[in-house]
Prior knowledge:
The complex is a heterodimer of chains A (136) and B (167).
Chain A: H1 5-19, H2 27-34, H3 38-50, E1 54-57, E2 63-66, H4 75-79, H5 100-122, H6 125-135
Antiparallel strand pairs in A: 1-2
Helix pairs in contact in A: 1-2, 1-3, 1-6, 2-3
Chain B: E1 14-17, H1 23-34, H2 39-50, E2 69-76, E3 79-89, E4 98-106, H3 115-129, E5 135-137, H4 144-152
Helix pairs in contact in B: 1-2
Amino acid sequence: MKLQKATRCALFAILELAAQPERQLSANEIAEKYGISTNHLAKVLRSLGRVGLVEAVRGAGGGYRFSGNRRRTTLLDIIQLFETIDPIRHGEREDGDDTAEGQALCQVLMEIEDTARATFSAITLDTMIKLVDRGR
Amino acid sequence: MANSQVRQAERKVTVRLAKAADIPQVIAVDAENTGLTKAEYWEDLFERYNSRATDGDDDAQHKSVKRYRFFLIACEGDTVLGFIIGEVRAWEFGSPPCGWIFAIGVRGNTRQGGVGNTLFEALNERFRKAGVTKVRTMLARDDTLIMSFFRAQGMMAGPFIQLEKDL
C-alpha cells in the first residue's frame, strides 16, 4: 500500500510536532529532516491548521505547534484529510465492475480496504509515537 | 479529533482472581459495554476458569492446564472496576504455546484511569510465569475502542488471518 505524498508529509509533520507538543518547529526544519519540499509541506500544514491539529506561532522563533489530542487523533483522521483509502467502499467504480469477475475482484479488494481502514483507525498518534520510540 | 480529552488520574486498584461474588458485577460491566446481559455465559465462564478451590489461590502452582486459565478482576474494595480473561493455549492453529486474551472490560466511568493497563499487565505477568513469551487476542475489526487499547499496549497484527463463511 502506498500513501500519497501530501498524506506522508502530513503524517511526518504531525508526528514530529506531536512528539513534543510544547515545541514549535518551522516548516523548513520539518521539511529538511524528511527530505520533502517546504512549499508542499507549508500547504499541508495549512490544511492541518484548518482542522485544529496544528497552530501557527507568529513572531521571532515562530513556527508550528501541535494543538490536537494525541491520544484521540488516529492515523485515519490525518489520512482522510488528504485521500480516501477505501475507494470501493466509497462507491468508486471502474470498468468491468458490473461483471461477475469485476464484482468478485471488488469483494477481495474491499476485504483489503476494510483491514487497512481498521488498522489506521485504531492507531492513535500516541501509539504511533511509542512505536517510533521503540524503533530508535 | 479535537482537544476534548480529560484523562483521569491513575487509580490504585487491586487485581485478583475473580470470585463467585464478583460475577454479578462483571455481568453488569459487560452489559454496560456491550448492551447485552449474558449472565449464563459469565457464570459458565467462571465455572470453567476459577471455580475450583485451588483456582481461588492466586499463588497456587501452575500444576494443570486449568491453572493456565485466568479470570482476573480489578477492584476498589468490593467494587469491580474491570475484568480480563485469558488462557495459555498450545498448538491450536499450529501455534506454539502463547497467552490468549479472550475478554476485557472496564466500567465506563473509570476509563482513562489505567484500569485496563493494570489488568493487561497483570494477565501478562501470569502468562510470563506460565512460561509463554507471546500474548495474542482477536477482536472485531470495527471495534475501534478496544482495538486502539490493544494497539496502545504495543500489540500489532500477527501472522494469523481469521477466515469464515456463511453456512
